[in-house]
Design goal:
- It comes from Embleya hyalina.
- There is one protein chain.
- The protein is of the alpha/beta class.
- The protein has three domains: 74 residues, Winged helix-like DNA-binding domain superfamily/Winged helix DNA-binding domain (Arc Repressor Mutant, subunit A, Orthogonal Bundle), CATH 1.10.10.10; 96 residues, Periplasmic binding protein-like II (D-Maltodextrin-Binding Protein, domain 2, 3-Layer(aba) Sandwich); 98 residues, Periplasmic binding protein-like II (D-Maltodextrin-Binding Protein, domain 2, 3-Layer(aba) Sandwich).
- The strands form three sheets. A six-stranded mixed β-sheet has the order 4-3-5-10-6-9, sandwiched between helices. Strands 1-2 form a two-stranded antiparallel ribbon. A two-stranded parallel sheet has the order 7-8.
- The longest helix is centred in the last third of the chain and has 20 residues.
């Protein structure tokens, strides 16, 4: 039994719908359901009753979920308590890809001025863990992308980055100044884990994307494009942070929000400070623009 499976079960108990519960953890319904089934097999108890119309907790499931909530609440603060006990307190920051880009130095300076006693511990996130590591209490805050609201997570906007399409350098599209999303969707695409649920992706890019190779790490996208000959969507900042001689970065419509994510209701002083630093950095950058 692992903590993530317990978190999935708690979420399903709240939503009573596999699709909605899976979307809250940025995974598709099939692997989410597999985790729930494995949990039930492991503990030897049916936690949920399923029919074609509804999902409901069993009496035994209701007891398990109550115990799981208490356990997870205790685990969420375990790492912080251990750090304090060791005498080497840390602030655990999860970072997806290029993180806060040009805003980070200002954020770090203000945060360390407020909390010189804390060392910042870096944890690499990918598209599949960008929210779950925060929700699971593995990190204290995360710099990530925000596709849609996530229950229990508060976002502070850092900046909005224009979207781009990554195209193999040998493609006839590589010299374009602009490529619409509709035109890009006519070509074979890579699927970035966390882009959205199956229904949303199929509606935007067609059914083919559901069978496309999945990429979990933002830094791996250009190499995957160069290797497979497929197209992929990314931030325009891929030009700066992930430049690849075999890939052209073509602007397209839309933006992606880069945010500081923290757990809703977490008012510990270091978390309040990192939020304050994020807001100050955003305001300073806006005044320069």
């Amino acid at each position: 039994m692992d903590l993530r499976s317990l978190r999935y079960a708690v979420t399903l108990a709240e939503e009573l719908h596999f699709g909605r519960a899976a979307r809250r953890h940025f995974i598709s319904e099939q692997p989410f359901g597999k985790r729930i089934r494995h949990l039930e097999e492991e503990i030897g108890v049916r936690v949920f009753e399923r029919t074609s119309r509804r999902v409901a907790l069993t009496p035994a499931g209701a007891l398990l979920i109550a115990d799981a909530r208490r356990l997870l609440a205790s685990v969420d603060d375990l790492s912080a308590r251990a750090a304090r006990a060791s005498g080497h307190p840390v602030f655990r920051l999860g970072v997806l890809g290029f993180g806060a880009a040009g805003l980070w130095e200002s954020m770090r300076s203000q945060f360390t001025a407020d909390h010189p006693e804390l060392a910042i511990e870096y944890s690499e996130l990918d598209f599949t863990t960008q929210h779950s590591m925060l929700q699971d209490g593995v990190v204290d805050a995360a710099i990530t992308g925000a596709l849609k609201p996530v229950r229990g997570v508060t976002y502070d906007l850092l900046f909005e980055s224009p979207l781009a399409v990554l195209v193999p350098a040998g493609s006839r599209l590589a010299h374009r100044d602009y490529l619409s999303q509709a035109e890009a969707a006519e070509h074979d695409l890579l699927r970035l884990d966390g882009m959205g649920d199956d229904e949303t992706l199929a509606g935007s890019f067609g059914e083919r994307i559901l069978a496309a190779p999945r990429i979990a790490n933002p830094a791996s996208v250009p190499m995957a494009v160069a290797t497979t000959g497929r197209l992929a969507f990314h931030s325009i900042l891929a030009r700066t942070f992930y430049a690849h001689p075999g890939v052209a970065v073509i602007p397209t419509a839309g933006t992606v929000a880069i945010v500081l994510a923290t757990r809703t209701g977490d008012e510990r002083p270091p978390v309040v400070s990192i939020r304050k630093a994020a807001r100050a950095a955003r305001i300073a950058a806006a005044s320069r623009d």
